[in-house]
Amino acid sequence: MVHYLELSFDSSTDIYVAFLVSASSQKAARIDKTSSDRVKSTPLGKEAIFKCVYTGNPPPEVHWTKNKKKLGDNCKFCVQKVENLNGVSVLRVTPYRDTDFGDYKCKARNKLGFDHITVKLLEDKSKSKFCETVSIFCHAHIHHLHFR
Question: Model pTM?
Fold first, then answer.
């Protein structure tokens, strides 16, 4: 069995710490594409939740992107919200504009490898008919108002 020494520097104490690590326990970052979501459909204003299942040792760093821009996990009122816990990364998207639909990527990386998956958020227009009808109804009646 192969082992190697891994050094870590603790800047608060200015001390290097050595760990003996078994090379056989190391695994490249991978995304389980059969357990992860690929396509979701939702109307404007309704949340869609994507899950990205990942593995790796050391545990991979995982993040989501849209149009090559990294999405944050610390924004309370964002269109997108990211949560990572125990091998599952969850992206919550509440689309308010047409540009919120489209492709999102989940990316996992550790020192032994990199993997990603592209997921697609589609607009479900069948559930938006009520809003369109109300909007047309309101616009039709506004033209009949007369002010004196």
Answer: 0.69
